Amino acid sequence: MQIEEGAVLSGKVTGFTKFGAFVELDSENTGMVHISEVANTYVEDIKDHLAMDQEVQVKVLSVNGGKISLSIKKLLPPEPRRPKPAAAQPRPSAPRPRAQVWQGPKMAPPPLGGKPTFEDMMSKFKKDSDEKMSALKRASDAKRGAGGGPRRGK
């Protein structure tokens, strides 16, 4: 008998392994139903779903060099979907706080003329930069252990 992919056949369960069951399709051909292709639910022990010499309807998934892969699950009606649990509704009592966004360094108020001058902005930048550099230097010196103590190995 010629077996083709997609064919629906009848067969008899002839053996079990921990990963599936063997189904005899005819006197010449035997295929295997992988444990994941037995039922629509999780199958821990295949013997809970199939019995020896049980007649089953199977669908041919593939035929590769004499190996016939079968499925019982593909012929079963789809399992009904369970409704998802209702998500908790947010409390409308208080609005969510706005995210805090960094606005940059606070600058001195502009002179009475309106916009700050380039020189004012440059001096502010240099001051902030010097403060950040000195803080970084202190932190890196502390990590290195700079303190004038004796060095190891000498």
Encode the helix/strand succession as letters: EEEEEH
What is the percentage of strand-forming residues? 15-25%
- Gross geometry: elongated
Main pleated sheet: 5 strands, mixed, barrel
- Which strand order spans the largest sheet, edge to edge or round the barrel? 1-2-3-5-4
The CATH class assignment of one domain is Mainly Beta
Query: Per CATH, what is the topology of one domain?
Result: OB fold (Dihydrolipoamide Acetyltransferase, E2P)
Structural class: alpha+beta
Radius of gyration: 38 Å
Return the CATH architecture of one domain.
Beta Barrel
Please tell me the overall pLDDT: 82
| N-to-C span | 88 Å
Give the helix level as a range of percent: 10-25%
Q: How many H/I helical runs?
A: 1
What is the compact description of this entry?
The protein is an alpha+beta fold and 154 residues long. Helices cover 18% and strands 23% of the residues.
Task: Please describe what this structure looks like.
With 154 residues, this protein is of the alpha+beta class. Among the domains are: 8-75, OB fold (Dihydrolipoamide Acetyltransferase, E2P), CATH 2.40.50.140; 108-143, no CATH class. The chain is 18% helix and 23% strand. The longest helix is centred in the last third of the chain and has 27 residues, at 118-144. The N and C termini lie far apart (88 Å). The mean pLDDT is 82.
